[in-house]
Amino acid sequence: MTPLVPDSLIRTLLAEISVDNSLRQTAAIASHARYPNSAGFFETADYVAAQARSYGLQNVHVERFPTREPMWDAVEAELDLISPVFRRLSTLQRVPELLAQHSRDGDVTAELVDVGDGTSESDFDGKQVNGKILLADGQPGPVWRAMGERGAAGMICAGAGEYFGRHTPADAVVWGEAPPGAFAMMISPRQGARLRALLKRGVVKVRMHGRAARVTPGAIGMVEGEIPGEMPGSDIVLAAHLDHQKPGANDNASGSGTLLELARTVNHLIAAGKIPKPKRTLRFWWTTEIRSEEAYFRQHPEEAKKIVLSVVLDQAGGELRKENNFIIIDNPTWLPSYADDLIENLAEYVKERYAPAEHAPDALWVARGGSSQSMRTVYWDYQEITDEVAFESREAQIPGIALAVPSLDLIHTNLDTTDKLDPTWMKRSAVMTLAPALYVANAGTKEAAATLDYTFHRAAARLAQSADPGRRLAEEQQRLDSVRELDHGLDTSADRARLASIAAALEEHTVDAK
Question: Coil, strand, or helix at residue 292?
């Protein structure tokens, strides 16, 4: 396969990117609880901004967007078993997820009552919950809403997370969000099973103590910085969401830490004369997932028109000693773009060149302390699950590339820690994020022509596989036209006509076959 992104650029990036630095930055970010609308988020944002400036990004600043709700930051929390014996079950220092996000403050000692998943009348049937502490599965919100006015003193949730049919481990404590007025704590399913075993023997009392800091006004935010280019109004955004619970290492301290390393990499390579200064401005955004971009575009509607491509990295490191997949999420059908074909070309090339199945990967494509897996790539249809939602919305209309190496067994739990990240996939994620961004940043007539040719052949293949080529034609012609963002003088009319002829021939063949 002939790559659109030159192999020389890929090798230059592989030689320069420091996985050690990516991991250092990831660990520093993961040491903070950085919930949306929290002081912890802005403390982390200030750290990221300082690092971005030290790596040579220009115009670095932290944006704030006011919210109605005050900031919420957990300060202290303890959960104790009082009887039949005393035992400290958990603390905020040991498990940062213990106090559910937005929980009210409280200090309550009361009997425990098991209400199952707490979402149906049968869970409460015959049970007196007034003044008691509920032991429930799942998230606090559904349980609290189902309780109505039953007067419970608090609740302890011991549910597992589930993502795409995969469940978090029995020892994992999931990140919980408390509804207004709820005093809620989170424990692991294994801890919940132990409490239920005690309840079968008799009365169980527990103590819940929790306190959070609340600051008004509230705000969500993002960090911005850039490497200015020579073509105003034709920018590329590299984005990773900074917010999440502590530690949230893979999701998404890893993406945010990697983005810092990419800023350092680009400026160092430019200074060393190994890559040219970008023609188009490279903008780096560390965000509150989806929400800050939406707020940014509401406040600065003109900025969306300046951005020609977004590259979003959400989870860079996968899970060490597990089989990992590199996920690529396509643009929505209402925004067909050459970007889908550009990243597919890159992914298939590096798999073939550096890490084919059943072969030992090239030494350049692995990192010290990381796995030696092949390049396993999975292409997803558009999913509304990360920052690409804000860029690729019908309002913003910014095409993008969305990438992830998820750790679905650990996501949103206290077990998502830095030591479980796979350095090899951190390195691969870094290259796969930066390479297409640099290609577009410096693309001219030659690159536009090559991209158009590749996109045309991929479009023809998609028409051939479509059940209704005539209906699919307009989408694929729009995809061809999207290449003109790389060269506004590019003429796509001949390729549009060729594609129309292919669609007509395919439809005629379908009619004849019937």
Answer: helix
Residues 6 or more apart whose Cβ sits within 8 Å of residue 332: 382, 392
Predicted confidence pLDDT, tens digits, the chain (514 residues): 899 999 999 999 999 999 999 999 999 999 999 999 999 999 999 999 999 999 999 999 999 999 999 999 999 999 999 999 999 999 999 999 999 999 999 999 999 999 988 777 666 666 788 999 999 998 999 888 877 668 999 999 999 999 888 899 999 999 999 999 999 999 999 999 999 999 999 999 999 999 999 999 999 999 999 999 999 899 999 999 999 999 999 999 999 999 999 999 999 999 999 999 999 999 999 999 999 999 999 999 999 999 999 999 999 999 999 999 999 999 999 999 999 999 999 999 999 999 999 999 999 999 999 999 999 999 999 999 999 999 999 999 999 999 999 999 999 999 999 999 999 999 999 999 999 999 999 999 999 999 999 999 999 999 999 999 999 999 999 999 999 999 999 999 999 999 999 999 998 876 555 5
Which of 30, 88, 438, 408 lies closest to 256 in space, CA to CA? 30
Alpha-carbon gap, residue 407 to 398, rounded angstroms: 27
Q: Specify the DSSP element, H or E, that contains 454.
A: helix 445-465
d(CA 256, CA 242): 6
**pTM of this prediction?**
0.96
